[in-house]
């Protein structure tokens, strides 16, 4: 009987080899989604992107960020704990001097140079495109008429699609 550790290692090596073949045998079956993946677990993580269920909540004081997966929550928590003075990811776009402490920050920033809007609204009759997935998620809340951010001012029943709009509205109550 092989050692379990050796067996796990062999399985990992085989999964890794798939990446060199370019063969992605696991296809998303969501309508109009053509994404394919090397492993079933990657596919299962991707499937979560098709719904809006965000069960994992950030516990950082004052942050109300929610994610769909534990791994995304871990990445998000890195933003709170990272040393912002270390910015090793530098933009290579001619004339741009931006740098970032996280690779993802550089990736999102780079989209602004290329203007590649790869996030597409699939709402019937809407063809809007967005640079980042978060912008598409906010946009979809308009279609679904979702207003999760409610004003907490006594007697006010307004609700908003975005937290920043609710905060601006709430500030107006204080001005009066």
UniProtKB/TrEMBL annotation:
<dbReference type="InterPro" id="IPR013087">
    <property type="entry name" value="Znf_C2H2_type"/>
</dbReference>
<feature type="domain" description="C2H2-type">
    <location>
        <begin position="119"/>
        <end position="148"/>
    </location>
</feature>
<feature type="domain" description="C2H2-type">
    <location>
        <begin position="26"/>
        <end position="55"/>
    </location>
</feature>
<dbReference type="GO" id="GO:0045944">
    <property type="term" value="P:positive regulation of transcription by RNA polymerase II"/>
</dbReference>
<keyword id="KW-0863">Zinc-finger</keyword>
<dbReference type="InterPro" id="IPR050329">
    <property type="entry name" value="GLI_C2H2-zinc-finger"/>
</dbReference>
<dbReference type="InterPro" id="IPR036236">
    <property type="entry name" value="Znf_C2H2_sf"/>
</dbReference>
<dbReference type="GO" id="GO:0000978">
    <property type="term" value="F:RNA polymerase II cis-regulatory region sequence-specific DNA binding"/>
</dbReference>
<dbReference type="GO" id="GO:0005634">
    <property type="term" value="C:nucleus"/>
</dbReference>
<feature type="domain" description="C2H2-type">
    <location>
        <begin position="89"/>
        <end position="118"/>
    </location>
</feature>
<dbReference type="GO" id="GO:0008270">
    <property type="term" value="F:zinc ion binding"/>
</dbReference>
<keyword id="KW-0677">Repeat</keyword>
<keyword id="KW-0479">Metal-binding</keyword>
<protein>
    <recommendedName>
        <fullName>C2H2-type domain-containing protein</fullName>
    </recommendedName>
</protein>
<feature type="domain" description="C2H2-type">
    <location>
        <begin position="56"/>
        <end position="85"/>
    </location>
</feature>
<feature type="domain" description="C2H2-type">
    <location>
        <begin position="149"/>
        <end position="176"/>
    </location>
</feature>
<keyword id="KW-0862">Zinc</keyword>
<dbReference type="GO" id="GO:0000981">
    <property type="term" value="F:DNA-binding transcription factor activity, RNA polymerase II-specific"/>
</dbReference>
<dbReference type="Pfam" id="PF00096">
    <property type="entry name" value="zf-C2H2"/>
</dbReference>
